[in-house]
Amino acid sequence: KKPIWIAKPIGKAQGRGIFLFTDLKDVKLWKKAAENRGNPKQDDDDDVENYVVQKYIEKPLLVGGKKFDLRIYVLVTGYMPLTVWLYRQGFARFSAFRFSGNKTSLKDTHLHLTNVAVQKTAPGYDREAGCKWFIDSLKRYLLSKHDKEVVDKSFYEIQMLIIRTLLAVQKNMMHDKHCFELYGYDVMLDSELKPWLIEVNASPSLTADTPSDHEFKCGMLDDLLDVIDIEEKRTGDETQVGGFDQIYHGGYVTPVKSSVQSYLGCYNNRLQVKARAQREYIRSKNHSK
């Protein structure tokens, strides 16, 4: 049985230009079909579009028979030392159709690509309901199907995957204490709940598709501003700011008095944390007087 491969153009987004194949001759056929659609020939090496090719996950974890991936937000406030904040909330992006690993369905992008931009074009797409599920809802679903230890381990492995990718590029990144980066990590779980990194987006989309999506992203950006602390209200030793948890600061940050190793998918108590931080700030200002 030939494995399935997925090819992605490095200069495009929202699922454009992605295709699946099982043989190198399929790439030649795809190139010829692209030229027949009016795309220019790429005979000159300078004009050739670069692609990333990955082995396709043929046995993804399914919910209701549908494939999904996870969009997770990671804030890096410095590379020297490496300082990483992980947002508790994120979302799973679902396909609108039941998954099939049949080789005859490889050209069906609605079946294999969970990008919202792709799913919006699917027949019968419900714009009000959307195709997303918040990660805390997904985690509760998984806890109803698997042992808590198995689910906790899977989410902790996602967190470790994030840290390791950043450690791998740390020495190659320009450090500026006045800058920060918000990354969008795309991760997929296979049928054994093992996480696989799909890609890291340096400019993740922050557009909202539904009212709940709008509320979530606005809240995350509000918390992001609190982390970078333009108004200098923080003490500097916080490990949680809004919905962001610090997971690395020159070394691993371990949750204190917690039954989980990662807060990803846990209850997002951002409003309570913000209110407590505001009270402590007012108290410190009054005390300084």
Measured distance between first and last alpha carbons? 74 Å
CATH superfamily of the largest domain: ATP-grasp fold, B domain
- Sheet with the most strands? 9 strands, antiparallel
The structural class is alpha+beta
| Overall strand count | 12
Shape descriptor: globular
Mean pLDDT: 87
- Helix and strand run: EEHEEEEEHHEHHEEHEEH
Any guess at the CATH architecture of the largest domain?
2-Layer Sandwich
Helix percent band: 25-40%
CATH fold-level label of the largest domain: D-amino Acid Aminotransferase, Chain A, domain 1
* Count of helical stretches: 7
InterPro entries: TTL/TTLL_fam
Keywords: ATP-binding, Ligase, Nucleotide-binding
Pfam family, one: TTL
GO molecular function, one term: tubulin binding
Structure explained in plain terms:
The structure is a single chain. The chain has 289 residues and is of the alpha+beta class. It has two domains: 1-56, no CATH class; 59-288, D-amino Acid Aminotransferase, Chain A, domain 1 (2-Layer Sandwich). Helix content is 31%, strand content 24%. The strands form two sheets. Strands 4, 5, 6, 7, 8, 9, 10, 11 and 12 form a nine-stranded antiparallel β-sheet that branches. A three-stranded antiparallel β-sheet has the order 2-1-3, covered by helices on one side. A hairpin with a 2-residue loop joins β5 and β6. The protein is globular, with a radius of gyration of 21 Å.
Keywords:
289 residues; alpha+beta; D-amino Acid Aminotransferase, Chain A, domain 1; 2 domains; 7 helices; 31% helix; globular
